[in-house]
Amino acid sequence: MNRMIPADTNVSHFEIGAADCARSPDIVLCAPVPFNWDETVRYLGRSANECLYRLKDGAATRLIPCGGTAVLAEIGGDNSALRIRFPEKRKPADEVQSETVRYIRDWFDLDRDLGPFYRQMENCPVMKDVAKAYEGLRIVGVPDLFEALCWAVLGQQVNLAFAYAQKRRLVEAFGESRRHDDGRTYWLFPTPARIAHLSVEDLLPLKCTRRKAETLIDAARRMADGVLSRDRLLGLGDFREAGQALRQIPGVGPWTANYVLMRCLRDPSAFPIEDVGLQNAVKSRLRLDAKPTRAQLLDMAAVWRGWEAYATFYLWRTLY
DNA sequence: CTCCAGGGTTGGA
DNA sequence: TCCAACCATGGA
Hints:
This protein is α+β, with helices and mostly antiparallel strands. It contains 15 helices and eight strands. Helix 5 (145-154) packs across helix 12 (254-263) and helix 11 packs across helix 12 (254-263). Mean pLDDT is 93; it is low at 1-21.
């Protein structure tokens, strides 16, 4: 029974400085300790088919939704700081910049104290080395609830490459985009309002199942109606209730609910135990002949208590 | 044709 | 609560 941690209780240290030359950052964020930007970038680069941001020279550029509009931001950095630039000619207003910073802090989970996680993993034979190897890697989140839900649903029971292809088709069919003067087009994930009015047939070209198309539209309607939102889920009191609320949506089962809890609602104890990637990672690390059983996983995860999401994310990281 | 992929649902112990 | 059976789709 985890208590919810309001997103804005954390102090954020950032300075807005004048950009005196083209490459100097508009904003510098102090990185938390520990932080590992290279590992973060490696995670971001796990699919060449990612359509929501572009990776170049260790920096990610994407359109960030901000109060009805969107800001193009380039995020680079190292293990001690993140550097944010706004490459468009018109610099965003201060409050938009602040919102961008909030998004980025959330995206990379910068405000979490990982000390307890690393101390706990010392006692886990499966995780001990993994935790050290990727120290400073934080769970890369999906701040937008609708995006997180759609991504989880599209990712059910299909390989990641195919999931990325489906996401790209969804985004390029129904998302907004903006062309930048670097010649590239940057995309925003489709809004619930846009998907809510579609029919299942409209989504079949994604090559998802009818069932998944129905789930996406159902989720979009709930969000467009306002009955479902990230804030509402976070306001429910504890993550278990949020998970139950998510599972009200037909087509959202335990894996999907936990995936969303982990990547969007930031529940560090979310545990998608049915995940085949997690199972394969454990199998490989323990040199098992077969994927571990649910009981084996539960047994192993007993020492992860409270940090199951982080352990899972780190184990995923071992897969590529 | 078979098997797998970052599952969901139903129905029965 | 847990498990088996069935469902569904594309790619290797």
